[in-house]
């Protein structure tokens, strides 16, 4: 499942925090993501469903996309759609996805890559599998996270960050039983490549059967753990968790997850996405693809979209049967 792997014995180790000094975070809740469909019909798990926004801040929304083996002709994406007021983070574990926007940005992300798109003031966007994957079919699995922007940055110019899997900072737990990929923010002084307006930490951890992972966590951040695969426990309370469940931790300076000694046959390890960020603590009005501070700003975003002020869909180049497109000779 994880595209980026390494020998944990050769990696820098994350020190076990002293619980007497930092305090371990208790488990506040464990929720199960309901299943649904997105875009043109690809399956998703709604990771944050049923969790209050106050516990998620600065995060807005997250889908676990797919983990599906498509037959030829089945791969699906999204149609063109607008965004304003937040950032989308697309992390691909298996498969290939192509992105394009109305500003001319975009690219291709594949196994272990992340695309960080700051929608900011607004744009039109499309996500789809490449044509060769549609023809051949194949495995697709990823995560898309929405990170809120503070009021001061909601109208920042759109930008992209293409983060290749090999750029993530690779770390090991203190005993070598877990591999950690730091995508954004920092963990125990080790920084990931993602640059964010709101301070956050995003880590993909692979925990071996029977291993326990305890890491320091910024006391000023919230703390979430989403189980991508496998089963195990969260917190000192050893709350049982499994694939498709989200753990919300309380206050403290360290978080703990552990893998069950017996894992599902198709999922040999506990795969967990660790998320935390500095709460923005501003009003949030979320309507479809817009995340703003007031209802009036949502209405304005809709009017701007309808008026074409968020951009226009680029015309697709269609070659002439009898020669090149005029102007391209």
From TrEMBL:
**A Pfam family the protein falls into:** Pirin
Q: Which SUPFAM superfamilies match?
A: RmlC-like cupins
- The Pirin N-terminal domain is annotated at 43-147
Q: Name one GO molecular function term.
A: metal ion binding
Question: Does the record's keyword annotation contain Iron?
Answer: yes
Q: Which residues bind Fe cation?
A: 81, 83, 125, 127
Cofactor binding remark: Binds 1 Fe cation per subunit.
- List UniProt keywords, sorted A-Z: Iron, Metal-binding
- Domain named Pirin C-terminal: residues: 202-310
Name the protein family.
Belongs to the pirin family.
How is this protein named in the record?
Answer: Pirin family protein
């Amino acid at each position: 499942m994880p595209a980026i792997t390494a020998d944990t014995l050769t990696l820098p180790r994350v020190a076990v925090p002293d619980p007497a000094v930092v305090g371990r975070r208790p488990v506040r809740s464990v929720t199960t993501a309901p299943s649904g469909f997105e875009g043109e019909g690809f399956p998703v798990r709604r990771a944050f469903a049923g969790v209050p926004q106050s516990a998620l801040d600065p995060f807005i929304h997250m889908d676990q996309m797919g983990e599906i083996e498509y037959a030829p002709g089945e791969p699906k994406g999204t149609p063109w759609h607008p965004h304003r007021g937040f950032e989308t983070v697309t992390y691909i574990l298996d498969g290939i996805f192509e992105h394009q926007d109305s500003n001319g940005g975009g690219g291709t992300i594949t196994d272990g890559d992340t695309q960080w798109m700051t929608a900011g003031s607004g744009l039109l966007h499309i996500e789809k599998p490449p044509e060769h994957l549609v023809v051949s079919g194949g495995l697709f699995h990823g995560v898309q996270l929405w990170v809120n922007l503070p009021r001061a940055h909601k109208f920042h110019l759109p930008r992209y960050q293409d983060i290749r899997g090999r750029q993530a900072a690779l770390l090991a737990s203190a005993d070598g039983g877990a591999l950690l990929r730091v995508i954004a923010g920092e963990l125990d002084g080790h920084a990931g490549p993602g640059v964010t307006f709101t301070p956050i930490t995003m880590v993909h951890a692979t925990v071996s059967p029977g291993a326990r992972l305890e890491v320091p966590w910024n006391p000023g951040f919230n703390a979430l753990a989403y189980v991508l695969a496998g089963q195990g426990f969260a917190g000192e309370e050893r709350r049982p968790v499994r694939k498709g469940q989200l753990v919300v931790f309380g206050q403290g300076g360290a978080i703990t997850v552990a893998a069950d000694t017996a894992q599902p046959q198709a999922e040999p390890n506990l795969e967990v996405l660790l998320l935390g960020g500095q709460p923005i603590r501003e009003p949030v009005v979320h309507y479809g693809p817009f995340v703003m501070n007031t209802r009036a700003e949502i209405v304005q975003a809709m009017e701007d979209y309808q008026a074409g002020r968020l951009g226009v869909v680029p015309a697709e180049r269609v070659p002439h049967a009898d020669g090149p497109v005029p102007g391209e000779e």
